[in-house]
């Protein structure tokens, strides 16, 4: 039961992190953003399959951090060629936004996973924000 909850949290976190970068991919890649997003989805599928395998094998609570690092590694390996290409060879105005995309998905994955897994933390953040709003009024 615990593994299923972790699995659902990880799937939600990855979906939210890829959805969060969708506006940037649409802005940068235009019509090809759909293919970039599908590619990120395939990377996520591999990460989720690894997550499922590791949750079945590992019993300690440290496996969540190991799984997060593994998901980042899978994403990095899948994007390694696109992270280092020289965009100036294509066009003088071109920028390598793949590294930015990778960093945003990585950050979003960790952030959303923590907020989904730890309702007390997200409640604390919401409570802190509510406290700021009441102090200002």
Descriptive tags:
137 residues, mainly alpha, 6 helices, 0% strand, globular
Number of domains: 1
Mean pLDDT: 68
Helix % is: over 70%
Largest sheet: none
- DSSP helix count? 6
pLDDT below 50 for ≥5 consecutive residues: which ranges?
A: none
- Rg from C-alpha positions? 18 Å
The gross shape turns out to be globular
Helix and strand content put the structural class at mainly alpha
Q: How many individual β-strands?
A: 0
Share of β-strand residues? under 5%
Distance between the ends: 44 Å
Secondary-structure element order, as H and E? HHHHHH
Structure description:
This protein is an all-alpha fold and 137 residues long. It has one domain. 82% of the residues lie in helices and 0% in strands. The protein contains six helices and no strands. It has helices at residues 2-20, 22-29, 33-57, 63-84, 98-117, 119-136. α4 runs antiparallel to α5.
Give a topology summary.
Layout: H1 2-20, H2 22-29, H3 33-57, H4 63-84, H5 98-117, H6 119-136
Short synopsis of the structure:
By secondary structure, this protein is mainly α.
């Amino acid at each position: 039961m615990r593994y299923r909850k972790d699995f659902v949290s990880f799937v939600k976190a990855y979906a939210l992190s890829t959805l969060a970068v969708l506006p940037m991919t649409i802005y940068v890649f235009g019509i090809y953003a759909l293919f970039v997003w599908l590619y990120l989805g395939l990377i996520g599928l591999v990460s989720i399959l690894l997550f499922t395998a590791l949750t079945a094998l590992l019993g300690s609570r440290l496996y969540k951090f190991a799984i997060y690092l593994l998901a980042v590694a899978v994403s990095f390996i899948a994007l390694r060629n696109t992270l280092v290409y020289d965009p100036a060879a294509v066009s003088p105005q071109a920028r390598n936004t793949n590294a930015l995309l990778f960093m945003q998905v990585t950050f979003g994955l960790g952030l959303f996973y923590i907020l989904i897994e730890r309702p007390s933390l997200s409640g604390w953040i919401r409570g802190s924000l509510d406290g700021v709003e009441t102090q200002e009024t």
